[in-house]
Every structure is written in structure tokens, then in C-alpha cells.
Amino acid sequence: MRIVLVGPPGAGKGTQAAYLAKNLAIPHISTGDLFRANISQGTPLGVEAKSYMDAGNLVPDSVTIGMAEDRMEQADAVEGFLLDGFPRNLGQAEALDAFLQTKGLKLDAVLDLEVPEDEVVKRIAGRRICRKDSSHVFHVEYNKPQTEGVCDACGGELYQREDDREDTVRKRLEVYHSETEPIIDYYKAQDLVVTIPALGKVAEVTQRAMDALERGE
């Protein structure tokens, strides 16, 4: 299967993508992984992307599209893939369609993880990260530390990242609404969108998505 996963920040796309890709036995292709792999390997696209990033500029769509196309042509993606974070806007969606058409392929589904905006803000703004080890993540409501402000694992100080502040989260949501949400209408016109309520336990959301795919919704 060839699937695109979309949803606002905080919808749990990365977590769901990993579970779904495993269940469907297809590679999980995320924009973040594409950038890290290309930059660490020093590919021409990675070098180009790094030059923009080092200058504090946005990486052009052409570079992101090139990385995604290269990855989709790798052997493990021949029978299918799950895209997470790509396409991010209409231009990228159109480029993806054009690329697949040259291969005689098409998408099977676009899974739209639906989460109320207030819940998105609560999920992200409530995160607290350990200063000693950023892999230790807590939440003021959903995963409280035993002692407020102190990491259970190592005793480090817990803090809120700038990216997780409520005003920043709301700005990210504005960008999502203006840039990424339009691709949902684009794919609805192709009858590809399957809306998945993304509230509840991770396993429940994964099962909803798998059930929808099996029904061919």
C-alpha cells in the first residue's frame, strides 16, 4: 500500500506511522529522517539542504521533493510506503502525484488524524523535557513526574522547550491550517481521504486506521 499520513502537530503522526508501517510491512518515510539521512551521508541534496539550514533559511520544496523521490525508489519501498510529513503543501502533493504517475502508480489512501485544536495545545504545551537527557519526556497531566519539575530517571531539571510554549504551538497550528490543510481537500477530490479520530490510546487509534484501510474506506 502507498499511504500518506496527515494531521496537525501533536496528533501523534510519528507514533502512528511507526505502528502502521510495521503492521502493513511497508517502510515509514518521514521528512525528518530524510533530512537527517541525506545530511549525515553528505548526499548532494543533503549538502544543499544543510546550506539553507545553516543560513537560517527554509529548504526549498524542490530539495525535499528530491529526497522523497530518491527514498521512494529504494528497493524496500517498491511494494509500498507510508509517508509522514510529506507532502506538506499543495506543491509537494502535486509533485508526488506526478512522480507516481511516471511509475504507473497511485496512492491508496490519505489518513487524516483528527484531533481538536485545544487537545493539540494541551498535548504539546504540557510537555516537560529533562535538561540532562532530552529522551526523558514527561507531561504535566498525562505523564507526571513523581516530584514536580524533577526527572524520575536521572533527577535532572524538567523544563518547557520554546517550541512547546502555547503561543508557539498556536503559530504552528496556523501554519498547518494555511499550508498543509489544503492538501486534505486536494486528496478529497480524489476520494482518498480517510478521517481517523485520534483521541484515545495509541493502540486504539492504530486499530481504527487499520480497520478503515481493511474496509477500503
Automatic annotation (TrEMBL):
Q: Mind telling me which residue stretches traverse the membrane in this protein?
A: none
GO annotation, biological process: AMP salvage
This protein's name: Adenylate kinase
In residue numbers, the region (NMP) covers 30-59
**Per the annotation, which location comes first and is thus the protein's main one?**
cytoplasm
| Organism the protein comes from | Streptomyces noursei
Pathway(s) served: Purine metabolism; AMP biosynthesis via salvage pathway; AMP from ADP: step 1/1
- Domain writeup: Consists of three domains, a large central CORE domain and two small peripheral domains, NMPbind and LID, which undergo movements during catalysis. The LID domain closes over the site of phosphoryl transfer upon ATP binding. Assembling and dissambling the active center during each catalytic cycle provides an effective means to prevent ATP hydrolysis.
Q: Which residues form the Adenylate kinase active site lid domain?
A: 127-163
**GO-annotated molecular function:** AMP kinase activity; ATP binding
Similarity annotation: Belongs to the adenylate kinase family.
Its annotated function is as follows:
Catalyzes the reversible transfer of the terminal phosphate group between ATP and AMP. Plays an important role in cellular energy homeostasis and in adenine nucleotide metabolism.
Q: Where is ATP annotated to bind?
A: G10, A11, G12, K13, G14, T15, R127, V137, F138, G200
Reactions it catalyzes: AMP + ATP = 2 ADP
Q: Which Gene3D superfamilies match?
A: P-loop containing nucleotide triphosphate hydrolases
Q: Which UniProt keywords apply?
A: ATP-binding, Cytoplasm, Kinase, Nucleotide biosynthesis, Nucleotide-binding, Transferase
Q: Which CDD domains does the UniProt entry name for this protein? A: ADK (cd01428)
